[in-house]
Amino acid sequence: MFRRTFWFTTGVAAGVWATTKVNRKLKQLTPENLAAAAANKAIDAGHRLKDRAVGFALDVRDNMAQREQELGEALGINTAPELPMARQYAAIENRNNPKYVDGSTYETYSYNRNEDH
Q1: Where in the chain are the domains?
Q2: Contacts for 81 with CB less than 8 Å, ≥ 6 apart
Q3: C-alpha dist (Å) from residue 117 to 111, 112, 113, 114
Q4: What angle do CA 53, 72, 87 make, to 5 degrees?
Q5: What is the 3-state secondary structure (H, E, C) of the chain?
Q6: Per residue of the chain (117 residues), what is the pLDDT tens digit?
Q7: Is 4 left (phi over 0), alpha (psi -120 to 50) or beta?
Q8: Distance from first CA to last CA of the chain, Å, rounded?
Q9: How many Å apart are CA 84 and CA 78, to the nearest integer?
Q10: What is the pTM of this model?
């Protein structure tokens, strides 16, 4: 009697385990989950590719600077070219700003058209 009970319980446990395992696998194979998994893999691949490209670009920039220095030494050109100063003003200024109207300065707030009103 004990052997029958043992094997019956073992069979029920194996059936529950197998059913759970099959149901999990079926959920993984639904179109939504397959699409999400494919999207995640594509995003990961894109990040890996971007990291490699950035690393390559940095290596190229370092090697380019080193080669320019070597060429400068070989040609006797040791001075760096003089670059124009960076602009410290906006290309287009807002003349409707109150500070231009009467010369006084007001605290201004940027307008965000996507803001909730």
Answers
A1: 2-78
A2: none
A3: 12, 10, 9, 9
A4: 65
A5: CHHHHHHHHHHHHHHHHHHHHHHHHHHHCCHHHHHHHHHHHHHHHHHHHHHHHHHHHHHHHHHHHHHHHHHHHHHCCCCCCCCCCCCCCCCCCCCCCHHHHCCCCCCCCCCCCCCCC
A6: 888 999 999 999 999 999 999 999 998 889 898 899 999 999 999 999 988 998 898 899 999 999 988 988 888 886 666 767 766 655 555 556 555 555 555 555 566 666 665
A7: alpha
A8: 77
A9: 19
A10: 0.40
What is the residue whose two structure tokens read 């019956």?
Answer: 8
Tokens of 13: 């446990």
- 108, 97 contact by CB (below 8 A): yes
Output the CA angle 80-81-87, nearest 5 degrees: 120
Both structure tokens of 74: 């070989």
